[in-house]
Specification:
The protein is of the alpha/beta class. It has twelve helices and twelve strands. A ten-stranded mixed β-sheet has the order 2-1-3-12-11-4-5-10-8-9, with helices on both faces. It is globular, with a radius of gyration of 21 Å. Bound molecules: nicotinamide-adenine-dinucleotide. Nicotinamide-adenine-dinucleotide is lined by residues 13, 17, 73-76, 89, 92, 260-261, 277, 280-286, 292-293, 296, 334.
């Protein structure tokens, strides 16, 4: 395969972790006989410093003509001045809009070797393997909002809006993923209260019934889901939900594996490139120390191979390599629980050795 992949290292630990992921992509290309053309571009604070814009036009052009994008992280105290004209995060929001990335995928998987770092008991959390699909460009975060004067001061409102098409496209993606996994899809809503959730439920049920009859489908109310995630997380396979519910539930679920440094995410559109990144931020407290955990970014690379390049064997190999290094006891500081730890580059070396 010949593929163009854009790397957006960004700020803080971004360049350190993306350079390890780059080595992984180069090794996969060599091992499996592919040609990956990798180009690096600016986003976030470093782009503000270089040209005053957190998302320069040539970054957008490069992303548009690529098959996939791997992002490190953006932001940091240097650009935190509230009176500044623009902020690094604006670059991230704009690239998602420019590329129409409406589906955010977050796998939540526990690694057996690290399960004791989870705040939950081993017997509840071990073996958890959930893939969340959060709708990313609709719902209450993008509805109209406003304030009006009222007798007791002011009244504020936000509209929560979903159209049939918006629900259809994310449910389809999630159901396709369920077919590739354990064949179980759960849709989360608040249909006992919200009209928008009643439409969501109606559309989701129709799509799964008509197009994915082999998928086992159920619906759960969002308040119940918040409880189930910490009482019986192993019962879920693929979960699909709207923007705000997904925002809250994926953050709750990100606590299950016990470390931020291991969790990747992907954002996909209808066509065009997907954007892959770790869920953590730019960790300014670790930047420049060669101490950050590169595994979330390396796992984001595996998602990129699977979802944008359709290279599932290669993706499995990368995930397997990460599992091997964890089994062998390699730990960066964040997952060392006070024991011996290795550097970012040494962790990259260990993954490459396992891949080879
Ligand atoms: P953070 O995720 O950067 O850091 C939280 C804690 O986790 C810190 O103690 C950090 O050292 C640790 N950590 C994070 N990633 C790690 C890794 N790979 N290895 C080891 N330890 C790791 O969140 P924050 O401190 O709230 O934010 C720092 C900056 O990142 C802010 O400017 C914020 O706006 C930005 N941010 C960016 C993104 C993004 O680019 N997608 C997401 C979240 C936060």
């Amino acid at each position: 395969m010949d593929a163009h992949i854009v790397l957006l290292p960004g700020d803080g630990i971004g360049p350190e972790i993306v350079s390890q992921a780059r080595r992984v992509l180069e090794t996969v290309a060599e091992k499996f006989g592919h040609s990956f053309h990798l180009s690096e571009h600016l986003i976030g604070g470093c782009a503000i410093d270089a040209c005053g814009d957190p998302l320069p036009a040539d970054t957008v052009d490069a992303c548009r003509s690529s098959q996939a994008i791997l992002l490190g992280a953006v932001g940091g105290p240097k650009w935190d001045d509230p009176s500044a004209d623009t902020r690094p995060e604006a670059g991230l929001l704009r690239i998602r809009q420019e590329l129409g990335l409406f589906a955010n995928l977050r796998p939540i998987r526990t690694f057996d070797e690290l399960v004791d770092a989870s705040p939950l008991k081993r017997d509840i959390v071990a073996g958890t393997d959930i893939l969340f699909f959060r709708e990313l460009t609709g719902g209450i975060y993008f509805g109209e909002s406003g304030r009006r004067d009222s007798p007791d001061g002011q009244t504020a409102w936000n509209e929560m809006v979903y159209s049939t098409k918006e629900v259809e496209r994310i449910v389809r993606l999630a159901a396709q993923a369920a077919q590739q996994r354990r064949g179980h899809l759960t849709s989360v809503d608040k249909a006992n209260v919200l009209e928008v959730s009643r439409l969501w439920r109606q559309v989701a049920e129709r799509i799964v019934r008509d197009e994915f009859p082999d998928v086992q489908y159920d619906v759960v109310l969002v308040d119940a889901m918040a409880m189930h995630l910490i009482s019986r997380p192993k019962d879920f396979d693929v979960v699909v939900t709207g923007n705000m519910f997904g925002d809250i539930l994926t953050d709750e679920a990100s606590m299950l594996p016990g470390s931020l440094g291991l969790l990747p995410s992907a954002s996909l559109g209808e066509d065009g490139p997907g954007l892959y990144e770790p869920i953590h931020g730019s960790a300014p407290d670790l930047a420049g120390q060669n101490a950050a955990n590169p595994l979330a970014t390396i796992l984001a690379t595996a998602m990129l191979l699977r979802h944008s390049l359709n290279l599932s064997q290669e993706a499995d190999a990368v995930e397997q390599a990460v599992e091997t290094v964890l089994k062998a006891g390699h730990r960066t500081r964040d997952i060392a629980a006070g024991g011996d730890s290795i550097s970012t580059t040494a962790m990259g070396d260990a993954v490459l050795a396992a891949l080879a």
